[in-house]
Amino acid sequence: MFQYAAASGGGNILSLVGPFVLMFVVFYFLLIRPQQKKTKARNGMLKSLSKGAKVVTIGGLHGTILEISDDIVVLRVNDVTKLTFDRGSISHSIVEKEDKE
Predict the structure, then answer these.
(1) If pLDDT is split at 50, 70 and 90, which confidence band does 95 have?
(2) Is 36 found in the same domain as 10?
(3) How far is Cα 75 from Cα 53, in angstroms, rounded to an integer?
């Protein structure tokens, strides 16, 4: 009777660990991997910013880049107003569609 319990102990560990491994795989493909892709795309967008690009900040402010350095961006909001932001505070860049005439 004790020999049977000792022999089946290995199967119990596999049946206990299996669902946790399956949950990790599901979390990886549903949560972790898409977040890594978004982060990679955002970092690429921040690196590709240049003067004259129209951007939106995290706070929703629309502006055009006047000056840019490694970590500072100066935006022109209207004809007179210039605001300084950290480069990481840029949410996304606005791509204007060309008129098809």
Answers:
(1) confident
(2) yes
(3) 10
Q: Tell me the C-alpha distance between 65 and 39, whole Å.
A: 22
SS3 of residue 96 by DSSP = coil
The tokens for 2 are 């004790």
Quote the pTM value. Answer: 0.68
Tell me, yes or no, whether 99 lies in a domain: no
Distance in angstroms (rounded) separating the CA atoms of residues 99 and 101: 6
Domain count, the chain: 2
Residue 39: domain span: 2-46
Residue of 58 and 15 predicted with greater confidence = 58
Read off the pLDDT of residues 20-48 as tens digits, 9 standing for 90 and up: 999 999 999 999 999 999 999 999 999 99
Residue 11 has pLDDT above 60, yes or no: yes
Distance CA 90, CA 49 (A): 10
Place of tokens 């669902």: 19
> Would you give the DSSP letter of residue 59?
T
